[in-house]
Amino acid sequence: MLVKALDIKEHDTVLSIASAGDNAFALAAQGPKKVYAIDLSFAQIACCELRRAMYRQLSHKEHLVFGGVIKGEMDRAAVFGRLDLPPPVRAYWQHNIELITKGFMTQGKFEKYFGLFRKKVLPLIHTKGRVAGLVAAKSEEERRAFYDKVWNNLRWKMMFRLFFSRFMMGRFGRDKEFFKYVEGGIADKILQRAEHALTALDTSQNPYLHYILYGEYNGVFPYALREENYSKIQSNLDKIEFCKMSVEEFAAAHNGKIDAFNLSDIFEYMTQEAMDILYETMLQKAAKGARFAYWNMLAPRKCSGYLAEKYGIKTDEGQNARYLFDDKAFFYSKFYLDVME
To answer: Which residue from 59, 88, 77 is spatially nearest to 242, judged by alpha carbons?
Structure first.
């Protein structure tokens, strides 16, 4: 969805929140001039640099086995020792070598949170047969009937609201500071998005749903892990620059213009006033026709009207709604694509 929305061209310079790398590698696969992938967390930068080395030195299957997203025989510590990594990144992973040996791509905080849901909560709600039925290929009408008649029972609603409550997510899933600006309850909002993903979207082709339910993708991979995209990513690895810094620091140091921005959900963790200041900083570095993509999960944030008027920002609400409708990462409540005309 992000690749489609940002519509990257070969002359584009891209700024992306790095996170653990999926979006940065997916955008690089489009063959832009440059991708700056930035993050405040060195752990995220270390994930990205390790993954770049994996793309460069491992086959597609080796990549998946090393990361832990498919089963396979491998001495991960030995493979890690052969990867070409920047010294600080190697030191970080040597200090956390147990994450490597377990398959580091399955060891993040949110992945472990979903693992707790899968192992401890889901079996109290539904049988393995019902889980298999949920992700079986069906028409939208059949998915709706399955959800209403089989899946959406009282226990599902009660356990879901409990597990995805503000307290539980703040304790086990995400840093509680992420919910600082969220008003009201969060579980019902997430439940509504989950219902959409389980009925309107093809559950058999949703990699994130497969991972939540099974702890693996069952051959249905996100963009950056698909075999057909592997060589495209490999051929563009040198165009990515990973940097540990804030968006403000990047904007202050960067002399050129940016054509496309993947801002993830960073605005959710600040006030609207702080977002306006940060957004204007980026607008001052944006090229004509620049595209800004960002999500809201729970806190509503968007480009303020005075900035839109001052810098000529256009937002197609109908198109944004269609993007959100198709978004397989279904926890988000809003998606924005703003265009600087």
So the answer is: 88
φ, ψ of residue 218 to 5 degrees: the values are 55, 35
pLDDT band at 185 (very low <50, low <70, confident <90, very high): low
Query: What CATH number labels 2-105+242-340?
Result: 3.40.50.150
| Residue among 236, 306, 312 at smallest CA distance from 277 | 306
Token output for 52? 């770049």
* CA dist., res. 260 & res. 254, Å (int): 14
What's the CA gap between 285 and 161, in Å, rounded? 42
Average pLDDT, the chain: 93
Condensed to tens digits (0 to 9), the pLDDT of residues 113-132 reads 889 999 999 999 999 999 99
The pLDDT of residue 172 is above 70: no
Neighbours of 318 (CB within 10 A): 8
Q: Enumerate the domain spans of the chain.
A: 2-105+242-340, 109-214
The residues pairing with 336 across neighbouring beta strands, listed in sequence order, are 294
